[in-house]
Amino acid sequence: MPITKNKEETATFAKKIAQKIQNGGVVCLFGDLGTGKTTFTKGLAEYFGIDRIKIKSPTYTYIRKHATKNDQNIYHIDLYRLSYIDELLLGEINELLENPNDIIIIEWADRMEEYLPENRINIYLEYIDEKRRSIKVV
Ligand SMILES: Nc1ncnc2c1ncn2[C@@H]1O[C@H](COP(=O)(O)OP(=O)(O)OP(=O)(O)O)[C@@H](O)[C@H]1O
Ligand SMILES: [Mg+2]
């Protein structure tokens, strides 16, 4: 299982995953607070030409949209503050999932585990110590 030694390595790892979903795809991130989900998202977005500074966890909304240069969208979804997924949000997310050319990345994907699409990449991040994280791709 890959182990990253700092946040740059996690961002670099994300770019390798990004290559696999250049034409669209869904990446689901699992892992406790501070394990690197947003860091991973920044790396992934950077691969598509989006400045990593633009990637921050949504505070007043669950979904943030970023347009890439290739007429694609990256939807960054962060479900941390969610205790249950309501129909309205689920409907919104399902609508996004209908466009196979877009890139959808979901932090705290376990909050909607039973509704996740079959076709997805699961990333499990685990804290080892202050600087190291293990990353499992399923
Ligand atoms: N190997 C590593 N990979 C990723 N982040 C690391 C690593 N080592 C240290 N860090 C630090 O851990 C923190 C990870 O924060 P990040 O916001 O990416 O986590 P998160 O999983 O999104 O947290 P949250 O659940 O709060 O959204 C950052 O402060 C980062 O600098
Ligand atoms: Mg985060």
Attribute tags:
single chain; globular; 26% helix; binds magnesium ion; binds adenosine-5'-triphosphate; seven-stranded mixed beta sheet; alpha/beta; Rossmann fold
Description:
The protein has a single domain (3-137), classed as P-loop containing nucleotide triphosphate hydrolases (Rossmann fold, 3-Layer(aba) Sandwich), CATH 3.40.50. Helices cover 26% and strands 26% of the residues. The protein contains three helices and seven strands. Strand 3 (63-67) and strand 4 (73-78) form a beta hairpin. Helix 1 crosses helix 2. The protein is globular.
Q: For the terminal residues, how far apart are their CA atoms?
A: 11 Å
CATH fold-level label: Rossmann fold
| Helical proportion, percent range | 25-40%
Largest sheet: 7 strands, mixed
**Basic shape:** globular
In the predicted model, the low-confidence regions spanning at least 5 consecutive residues are none
Per DSSP E runs of 2 or more residues, the count of β-strands stands at: 7
In the residues, how many domains can be counted? 1
Q: What is the gyration radius calculated from CA atoms? A: 14 Å
In what order do the strands lie side by side in the largest sheet? 1-7-6-2-5-4-3
Structural class by SSE content: alpha/beta
The CATH class name reads Alpha Beta
Total of DSSP H or I helical runs spanning 4+ residues: 3
What order do the SSEs take from the amino end to the carboxyl end, as H and E?
Answer: EHEHEEHEEE
Binned strand content: 25-35%
Mean pLDDT: 95
Short characterization:
By secondary structure, the chain is an alpha/beta fold.
